[in-house]
């Protein structure tokens, strides 16, 4: 794992216009986590490094799409989000799990294994 500050290709920003292509369709090729976050949300800011660290450990076997909710409120409504951050796992075009709030890396790893097994 490199210390390059730029996000690898499997971590990217997404918006409403690209959501179906870059999340729903891509989830047919492999799991996609979507991090619904907001700039004003302290737990969102604290979750991001742990989430990115764990996704990087999978070396591209899991994608992480980061969606800023203030600019994409219709998607927040579509998935009935009640708080932020919310992370939703998509596999085969379907939601397979979600969690809310900031979590430590070890918790995120366990949650992924619980939902995806050893990928």
Describe this structure in words.
There is one protein chain. This protein is of the alpha/beta class and 119 residues long. The protein has a single domain, classed as Glutaredoxin (3-Layer(aba) Sandwich). It is 37% helix and 24% strand. It has a five-stranded mixed β-sheet with strand order 1-3-2-4-5, with helices on both faces. Helix 2 (42-57) packs across helix 4. The longest helix has 16 residues, at 42-57. The radius of gyration is 13 Å and the shape is globular. The model is unreliable at 1-5 (pLDDT under 50).
Which descriptors would you attach to this protein?
119 residues, alpha/beta, Glutaredoxin, five-stranded mixed β-sheet, 5 strands, disordered N terminus
Number of helices: 4
Mean pLDDT comes to 93
Low-confidence runs (pLDDT<50, min 5 residues)?
A: 1-5
Read across the widest sheet, the strand sequence of neighbours is 1-3-2-4-5
Radius of gyration: 13 Å
CATH architecture: 3-Layer(aba) Sandwich
Largest sheet: 5 strands, mixed
Helix fraction, binned, reads 25-40%
**Class of secondary structure makeup:** alpha/beta
Strand content: 15-25%
Give the termini separation. 18 Å
Give me the count of strands.
Answer: 5
Give the overall form: globular
The CATH topology comes to Glutaredoxin
Number of domains: 1
């Amino acid at each position: 794992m490199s210390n390059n500050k730029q996000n690898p290709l499997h971590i990217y920003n997404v918006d409403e216009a690209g959501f179906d292509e870059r999340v729903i369709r891509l989830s047919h090729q492999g799991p996609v986590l979507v991090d619904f976050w907001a700039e004003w949300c302290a737990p969102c800011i604290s979750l991001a490094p742990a989430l990115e660290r764990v996704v990087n450990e999978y070396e591209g076997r899991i994608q992480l799409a980061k969606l800023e909710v203030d600019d994409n409120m219709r998607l927040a409504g579509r998935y009935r989000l009640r708080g932020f951050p919310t992370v939703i796992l998509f596999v085969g075009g379907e939601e397979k799990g979600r969690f809310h709030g900031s979590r430590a890396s070890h918790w995120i790893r366990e949650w992924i294994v619980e939902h995806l097994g050893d990928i």
